[in-house]
Each structure stands twice: as structure tokens, then as C-alpha cells.
Design a protein that fits this description.
Blueprint lengths: L4 H5 L3 H15 L12 H16 L18 H11 L10 H14 L2 H13 L4 E4 L15 E5 L2 E9 L9 E7 L10 E7 L5 E6 L8 E12 L10 H17 L11 H11 L5 H29 L8 H23 L18 H9 L10 H12 L22
Helix pairs in contact: 2-4, 5-6, 5-7, 7-10, 8-9, 9-10, 10-12
Length: 411
């Protein structure tokens, strides 16, 4: 596809979409044309491609120009999403950087922080991670024990974080640490921007059932963070964390409405056909349910995207999309098991050349449980929806209003 003179001069969203589509066809592989394992190969590919997209004027479309964005509007963003749906544009590598870290810096950052960090973030020169969960706190983010102590010129951070996605590839991170131990747990937290390559940072990748290492256990040993990299107000880290998690759920809720990846209906159907099982009544019923799940979650995403485009704040309702997606993913895993049967476990590795019917489906099945807990468990999402969307009473909390030093640990 070439860009016509009319499209080149057309400043409408339609003209922008035509230019975007022409550029994509000339520079980006079609989705599914090449399958790369999640890891260094995928990160290297998406880093290089993100820089090309940025330099061509198709990244950070709605972000302010002074902070590396294009200064365009929602119509152009939607036009890009439509054009890019069929292409292998960066998705996994930058989901945290662009869906969570960039927006929270935009919201809370100083002018100096935005100017320093956002252009490199949007271009993909720097990858960012989110550092909330801890080994001893589980889903109770406010129960974290990583401490930040005030020193000359900044802070010293000591502690540990876990389940941090792609941290082994990241240059920077957004971390929440405890700066006051004598107030209730939600009031003693502060958010910082941290250098993941600084002295004292130890990143330990965690291998999961697929053989991949998507998550990390990280130790911080007296890591210095300058005062100018404190992001939230002192003691307001919980509010910042809630806002950042809301960005994550909104990103999920308004994400691509096109189902992609190994679990996509077309891929599972192709695998069932290869097995010769599409005439079996049970398999046909499972395929029908899988199709309905895919369409339902896509329509929910489309609705939330339309609301966001209309300026309707999603706020806590972003948890509805997160919960719906997690529940659909869990049911999809059950349906895929029914459809493919024992062929699902005939696999020797997450590569296109691996043994078995469809290595990607098997890998996704083995790792699907992570989607039920990542970004907050389904139970956490139900609590948020009940309290902040439906207006139900909060669950009882025995540690409410108690100084953190007086809360029993490990009970």
C-alpha cells in the first residue's frame, strides 16, 4: 500500500489512518507471521520497532509534544489502533511502561521529571517496571515492608519486591516504599522513581511452568534514590499506587478489541481441525462457548474504549474489565483442555519447532493461571467493584487505624 497525495495532505483521522496503514505495511510484519518467544529476542525486536514507530510519528499520539508526544487527539489514537490491529506492533514489552509508568509520571511528576523521563519512555529507549508486590505481603500492597530512609540529598531503599514483570530488561522502575512506620499502613508509603541498574539492585528472574522467566524477585540493598526522583508527596504513596493500578486496569479495559495470540478462537479452531475433532458435539459446544467469550470481552473493551474517548472517567470500573478478562481466561483454559485433550500436553518447548500440535497454545495453558492473579487477584477486583462501583460496605479490617509497628506480622 502506498500513500496517495490525497492521504498525505488529509489531516482528518481517516487520512492519518491511511498514512499509518501504509507505513505499517512497509515496515512491520503481519501479526502471527513470526512467533518469537517471550524473552530477550522479543524485547530486542520490540525495542527496535518501537523506536521506528516513534521516529515515524506514530507513538505517544495523545501525549504533550513537550514530553515526547505527538500532541494529537483520541481520533488519531483510535485510527492507529485500527490500522495496527493486523500487525506485530510492540505489545507485551511496553505494556507496563506505556500503560502504567508513563501515565503515573504524567499525573504526578514534576515538569523536570516529565521532561527527563517521558521522551525516552515513549520511544522505548528505557523500559520501566512496577515495583509493588512483596514476598511477605501478598495481595496486601499496603502491608509492604521495603523501607526508604531519608539521607542527605535523597533516600536509601532497602527491601524486596516480587512478581515484577520483565524487570530483568528494565532501566527504570516505579517503586512504593515505607517512609513512616508509626502511622497506619496506608499512610506511611511514598512512591519513587528508581534506577534498576543502580548499585545495590539485584534482579533474580523466576522460571515458571512454561520454562520462561517473565517475573522477578528483586532485592534492594541500601539503594540511593535522589530527592528529585521522589514521585508522590511524602506519605501519599498509597494514593499514587491506587492511581497507577487504575491506569493498569483502564489499559486492560480499553486495550485491543481484536483477540490475538494462541488462545484466539481462530487458532484454537485450526488446532481442533488439525486433530479432526470438529465433528464431535462436545468439541463444537466448547468452540461455540469460546467464541462467545472472545466476542463478549471484545465488546466490553469496545464499550470502555468508547467511554474513555467520550471523556467518561472509568475509575474503579476498570476493575470490571480486569475481572471479566481473568474469568474469561480461566474458562478459556478449561475449554481449550476439552477441545484439544491430551494433544495439549504433547510439547517440548515454547518454539515454533517444538513438538506437539500448537506449542503456543500449550505454553499459554501452562501459564494461564498468572492472569488470574496479576495486577490484583479476582477476589481483589470483586472487592473493588463491590465497594467503589456498587457502593457496598467495606470488608472488616482488623488493622484499620493502627500504627504499622503495632500490626502483627505473619499472623
Amino acid at each position: 500500500m502506498t500513500i496517495t497525495a490525497e492521504a498525505e495532505s488529509d489531516t482528518s483521522a481517516a487520512g492519518f489512518e491511511a498514512r499509518a496503514r501504509a507505513w505499517l505495511e512497509a515496515n512491520v510484519e503481519r501479526a502471527g507471521a513470526v512467533r518469537r518467544t517471550r524473552g530477550e529476542e522479543l524485547v530486542a525486536y520490540e525495542r527496535a520497532l518501537q523506536a521506528k514507530i516513534f521516529d515515524a510519528g506514530f507513538a505517544a499520539l495523545t501525549q504533550p509534544e513537550e514530553y515526547g508526544g505527538q500532541g494529537l487527539g483520541e481520533p488519531e489514537r483510535q485510527a492507529w489502533e485500527r490500522a495496527a490491529a493486523d500487525f506485530a506492533v510492540p505489545r507485551m514489552t511496553y505494556s507496563v511502561s506505556h500503560g502504567m509508568c508513563g501515565p503515573i509520571i504524567n499525573l504526578l511528576g514534576t515538569e523536570e521529571q516529565k521532561a527527563k523521563y517521558l521522551p525516552r519512555l515513549w520511544r522505548g529507549d528505557d523500559l520501566w517496571c512496577q515495583l509493588f508486590s512483596e514476598p511477605s505481603a501478598g495481595s496486601d500492597v499496603a502491608g509492604l515492608r521495603t523501607k526508604a530512609e531519608k539521607v542527605d540529598g535523597g533516600w536509601r531503599i532497602t527491601g524486596s519486591k516480587v512478581w515484577t514483570t520483565s524487570a530483568q530488561y528494565c532501566e527504570r522502575g516505579v517503586i512504593v516504599a515505607r517512609t513512616d512506620w508509626d502511622v497506619p499502613k496506608h499512610q506511611g508509603l511514598t512512591m519513587f522513581l528508581i534506577d534498576m541498574k543502580a548499585e545495590g539492585v539485584q534482579v533474580n528472574p523466576l522460571r515458571v511452568a512454561t520454562g520462561e522467566k517473565p517475573f522477578n524477585l528483586i532485592f534492594f540493598d541500601n539503594v540511593f534514590v535522589p530527592e528529585e526522583d521522589r514521585l508522590s508527596e511524602l506519605g501519599k504513596g498509597w494514593d499514587a499506587a491506587v492511581a497507577m493500578l487504575r491506569f493498569e486496569r483502564i489499559s486492560i479495559g480499553t486495550g485491543s478489541t481484536r483477540s490475538e495470540g494462541p488462545y484466539a478462537f481462530d487458532n484454537v479452531l485450526a488446532a481442533a481441525k488439525k486433530l479432526g475433532r470438529t465433528d464431535e458435539p462436545g468439541v463444537r459446544a466448547a468452540l461455540a462457548e469460546l467464541y462467545v467469550l472472545e466476542q463478549g470481552t471484545s465488546l466490553l473493551s469496545l464499550r470502555m474504549r468508547a467511554e474513555a474517548a467520550a471523556g467518561i472517567a472509568l475509575n474503579a470500573r476498570g476493575s470490571i474489565a480486569k475481572l471479566a478478562g481473568a474469568q474469561a481466561n480461566r474458562r478459556t483454559a478449561e475449554l481449550v483442555s476439552e477441545i484439544l485433550g491430551t494433544a495439549l500436553v504433547s510439547w517440548s518447548g515454547f518454539t515454533p519447532e517444538g513438538d506437539g500440535l500448537y506449542p503456543g497454545i500449550t505454553a499459554m495453558f501452562a501459564g494461564s493461571a498468572s492472569s488470574w492473579t496479576a495486577g490484583g487477584t479476582m477476589e481483589v477486583q470483586k472487592g473493588i467493584i463491590g465497594e467503589r462501583v456498587l457502593g457496598l460496605e467495606k470488608d472488616p479490617q482488623v488493622d484499620r487505624g493502627i500504627p504499622f509497628t503495632q500490626i502483627r506480622q505473619g499472623a
